[in-house]
Design goal:
single chain, 219 residues, alpha+beta, D-Maltodextrin-Binding Protein, domain 2, 2 domains, 3-stranded antiparallel β-sheet, 3 strands, globular, SBP_5_dom, SBP_5
């Protein structure tokens, strides 16, 4: 049994797809077909798609649940976060997704949009490759964990709009453990762990995605 099964189905990466359509285009597990088409079961269906520009959704007449209130939903692809913020401020769009903190602060100053703040389940992890030297040394990983300035990143990069996680599951999500062990910025403990490292590296390679503007200042 997989305990989070129902929860997983509610995520876009595991949404239910019509099996008959998959079998019809099963040459590559329907990857090629699904890259250009949809075969979902939700309240909306795809009417048109301009790649890299816009998607238009309309109500799905075959949806068995309550009918959606909107007759049409337009999803615009706007790469620049500043452009998303400006269009939201002008009233050209109703919702802007994934605005970085600096753009949210700009919105607050404009006083044209009501910025509501509330806890979210968005998380950011720093993954350590513990199967490869030098990070296969537990002492080194602990030294990194104790030396990381968690609150400094929250305050300096996120302008206080965030909190350090306690364990791998964020507060508010099923499975969260409020008693889980939590590292903090402690240079004394970091040095003690560093002194135990057998093979001390002179540098580490940090790979990050440019999709999130917060990663570069963290690096």
């Amino acid at each position: 049994p997989f305990a989070p099964f129902l929860y997983t189905l509610a995520n876009d990466g595991a949404s239910i797809i019509n099996p008959a359509v998959l079998k019809e285009h099963a040459a590559d597990d329907a990857r090629g077909f699904l890259a250009q088409n949809t075969a979902g079961s939700g309240p909306f269906m795809l009417k048109s798609w301009q790649k890299g520009q816009q998607l238009v959704l309309v109500p799905n007449p075959h949806y068995p649940g309550n009918k959606p209130n909107f007759k049409r939903v337009s999803v615009k692809i706007i790469g620049e976060s500043a452009s998303r913020r400006l269009q939201l401020s002008r009233g050209d769009i109703d919702i802007a997704d994934a605005l970085p903190v600096d753009q949210l602060n700009a919105l607050k100053q404009e006083n044209k949009v009501n910025v509501a703040e509330y806890p979210s389940l968005r998380v950011t992890y720093l993954y350590l490759n513990n199967s490869k030297a030098p990070l296969n040394q537990a002492d080194l990983r602990r030294a990194i964990s104790w030396s990381t300035d968690y609150q400094g990143m929250v305050n300096g990069i996120l302008s206080g709009n965030g909190k350090q996680m306690r364990g791998p599951i964020p507060e508010g999500m099923w499975g969260y453990d409020a008693t889980a062990m939590q590292y903090n910025h402690d240079e004394t403990k970091a040095k003690a762990e560093w002194d135990k490292v057998t093979s001390k590296p002179t540098s580490l390679t940090f790979l990050y995605s440019d999709n999130d503007p917060n990663w570069e200042p963290i690096a």
